[in-house]
Amino acid sequence: MKYSTFIFATLFFLTMVSCNSRSGRDKHQTDSIQPQKLADSNVSLLPEKTDAGGSAKFPSKGSDTIGMKTLPKVFNGDVLVQYRDDDFGKRMEVLSGSPFTHAGVIFKRERDGVWMVIEVLDSVRITPLREWTDRGGGKNIVLLRHKKYVEGLSKEETMRVREAFKKFKKCAADDWFAADDKAVCSSELVWKLYYNALNIELAPMRTFKSYERADGAVQKMLATHYGKNIPFEQKYITPVDFLNSPDMVKIYER
């Protein structure tokens, strides 16, 4: 009887030791796997690249601004003209006799490579190219390039134009073809950026008188602002002057 009790106690002890040992191994395996799962879950949340300073570099939402659906390859310094459907656009159309009433200069934004357009609407501004081309009902867009810059402006020339732009960043929008730099319109800004930075005239400036047509529409329109004192000899530039310039090459038209 005593011998049977001893055997039973021994078997019970060995069973308990075996269970505790298995439980310990399972716990150890679980503990060793869990950190790996957590590490794996973080991999997809990290950026694949960092910049020179070690900061995370995520893809830009506007990195496909062009998409080549509306324009061919563009370069720094390219000029765009389009239709502008507002009061100033209508006045510009009367002056120039053309539906192309708005202009801008294309530049690649340095921090993310997105193409932008320097322009003037209610103020001087910089607009993403895709947004710019979507305006005006998606019609009447022409891409122009100066014949001297068949592959765009150089890095140095681009920097010079950027520097020239600083002068106009706080300018008001010109609603009535002013002659000074206190207010500018889009075609005037484009012309002055090239002239001030590179000493290049994209097109010859013209007098108000040279825009007049047989129906007298230009004089009638200017008289609503200037009254009887219309400055007919005042020089100006319109988007259609870029189109007609022998120095500007038409790259694309829609």
What does this structure look like?
With 254 residues, this protein is an alpha+beta fold. Helices cover 40% and strands 18% of the residues. The chain has eight helices and twelve strands. A six-stranded antiparallel sheet has the order 6-5-4-3-7-12. It has a two-stranded antiparallel ribbon with strand order 1-2. It is globular, with a radius of gyration of 34 Å.
- CATH class of the domain at 79-253, named Alpha Beta
Task: Give the termini distance in whole angstroms.
Answer: 107 Å
Classify the beta-strand content into a percent band. 15-25%
- What coarse outline follows from CA principal-axis ratios? globular
**H/E order of the elements?**
HEEEHEEEHEHEEHEHHEHE
Radius of gyration: 34 Å
By helix and strand content, what is the structural category?
alpha+beta
Biggest pleated-sheet summary: 6 strands, antiparallel
CATH topology of the domain at 79-253: endopeptidase fold (from Nostoc punctiforme)
Mean pLDDT, rounded to whole units? Answer: 78
Unreliable residue runs: 25-68
Helix content: 25-40%
| CATH architectural grouping of the domain at 79-253 | Alpha-Beta Complex
Helix run count: 8
By DSSP, the count of extended strands is 12
Task: Record the strand order, biggest sheet.
Answer: 6-5-4-3-7-12
CATH superfamily of the domain at 79-253: endopeptidase domain like (from Nostoc punctiforme)
